[in-house]
What we know:
Layout: H1 2-13, H2 17-38, H3 50-62, H4 71-97, H5 122-135, H6 137-148, H7 153-160, H8 164-186
Amino acid sequence: MNEKVTLLLERAAAGSDSAxxxxxxxxxxxxxxxxxxxxxxxxxxGTLQPTALVHEAxxxxxxxxxxxxxxxxxxxxxxxxxxxxxxxxxxxxHRAKRGGGWQRVTLEAVDATPAMxxxxxxxxxxxxxxxxxxxxxxxxxxxxxxxxxxxTSEEAAEVLDISRSTAAEEWRVARAWLYxxxxxxxx
Length: 187
């Protein structure tokens, strides 16, 4: 299946509508699971739903001119696209409310915390994650996959092609770094 996804990605990027449709059928459930993980524990009635997030991300992905190398790369880029959409959506909501209802939260007790819990300041987390990416891109990608993508440590390790123990250690270090960064920003 990995090679088929990669082949379809290449054909879809070259403009093949049939390849794009076939690709969506192959990856939709996994994209939907990733998006669903981002919305766990969210109050019903939000303006952005997992299905809409998947569709927006998919349109973004297929329209990009990327030299796709693997299925894993696709899901890393998909998680980044979903994160970008969530951040844009949060900024839009934030502007509409003019700051009302925002509450700072930390990653202190996070294991695989969904990105769309009530009160999560996505913009602050996005800024901290961008700073972490400057220092250590792999740790930032790991946080992105776990926090925004809802992947388990094992799944993220597989996508990043690192051992489970390395993923667990980098997750611990990244969480501590982000916690300090978010606490400093809140002060």
